[in-house]
Amino acid sequence: MSATARKKAPNAEDIRARKGSDPLVSLTAYTTPMARLMDAHCDFVLVGDSVGMVLHGLTSTLGVTMEMMIMHGQAVQRGLDTAMMVIDMPFATYEHGPADAFRNAARLMAETGAGAVKLEGGVEMAETIRFLVKRGIPVMAHIGLTPQSINTLGGYKVQGRDEQAETVLADARAVAEAGAFCVVLEKVPQGLANRITDEVAIPTIGIGASAGCDGQILVVDDMLGFFTAFKPKFVKRYADLGPMAEAAIAEYAAEVRARSFPADQHVFSDQAPAKGPKA
Question: What's the N-to-C CA distance of the chain in angstroms?
């Protein structure tokens, strides 16, 4: 094989096989340019329903539609060559029952080219996960804090402290046994996240969990400082691009008002430039 041959994107079984190996790297993406930036650095890229809050100004993920996810999934897929794409199933597209979930998951995968879907829920979603997997739909599970359930969870609270730990552990066991190829642990205490990672046979992907998880994911706009409405404790800002972008926009506005932009180098002369002699 040529040393310059393109690296093949991993599939769900490749991700599953990374259990206990080098940590899996993931970020969310919603657009082609952002997907291109992270493609070479991520094992999988998630088209998250967080797009509703990050790009569409919604107050939660509950208003995200299939059409929104398909549009953003298609955009992200255009920017990926070497990372696997996983796409979120939006609220109310899989909870009604396995058959309904299959129809919507199949549509998401067919119309976006995603390699897998992600859905929220543990014990109560095990039957649906099993149904999808048996019919060729790879499923990434998501337990702990499940943002689509904030109205029943009472907000964006840590899940799994004290007596609640056994419930979250049961969720992890259930989704693994149902056939999920990995599981996202969101806002789960560090000790519990480590226990789940030790006890389940599929990779755990932490977001506000533990460095001991088999991988990590963050919302890219959080870690780059573009999304500034709030900052969860588990987010590390690797750049602060939001204020930098605002400063650049302010500078542009000031130059337009002062008529210093566009300058001579940005405009075109009335006469075409003379062509030089051919070499």
Answer: 41
Kindly state the DSSP code that residue 277 receives in the 8-state scheme. Answer: P
Half-sphere exposure for 34 (CA within 13 Å, toward CB): 22
- Does residue 166 have an active-site annotation? no
Query: Which pTM was predicted?
Result: 0.94
pLDDT in tens, 17-38: 999 999 999 999 999 999 999 9
**Given 95, 186, 199, 251, the catalytic residue:** 186
Q: Are 163 and 122 in contact (CB under 8 A)?
A: no
- Quick: pLDDT tens for 260-273: 999 999 999 998 88
Collect all residues with Cβ–Cβ distance below 8 Å to 224 and sequence separation of at least 6.
237, 238, 239, 241, 242
Q: Nearest-CA neighbor of 232 among 219, 242, 213?
A: 219
